[in-house]
Amino acid sequence: MxxxxxxxxxxxxxxxxxxxxxxxxxWMFAQWAGDHQTRPFRDMLVDARVYGVVPIHxxxxxxxxxxxxxxxxxxxxxxxQWPAVRSTLALVQRLDxxxxxxxxxxxxxxxxxxxxxxxxxxxxxxHTRAFAVDLxxxxxxxxxxxxxxxxxxxxxxxxGLGRYPSGRIHLDTAGYRTWGGDGSAGSSFCAKPS
Length: 194
What we know:
alpha+beta, Muramoyl-pentapeptide Carboxypeptidase, domain 2, 5-stranded mixed beta sheet, 10% strand, disordered N terminus, signal
């Protein structure tokens, strides 16, 4: 099923014309993984029943600016963050089950602090201290279902929801908040319910 999703995503990216998927593919991941210990992380995902929610090569992508910052293209989050990994993946899984995230590609997840700073990430970014994913959503035109979920259930999930000027969507379970292109709640496509 996930393989079919990846093929559909590739087709959607091509059909979108301008949308570009991330160059860090399975082949590049296999080369990197050969020199890095990923087994305990994979075992944790299996035990938590969230393995495969996001393809492993996407889940371990570091910042998109990894080349510019002379960093690794992939990174395993520290074990201290694994509870947050499980929580964020459970959220992604729920959004997928509800049909809110029909097609997505994770382009950035855990970032070590030096890479986060070089890539222009927030000083206290959830990418460095908890666990967050930045998503490409090809063909995504209607933010209302995601916004409605955040308004109705975001507090219970401790859900952070952001949208960057590039159009990427940020999800985490490190605090109930939202922001938009200028980094403030006022520029978010979602308003907190009154």
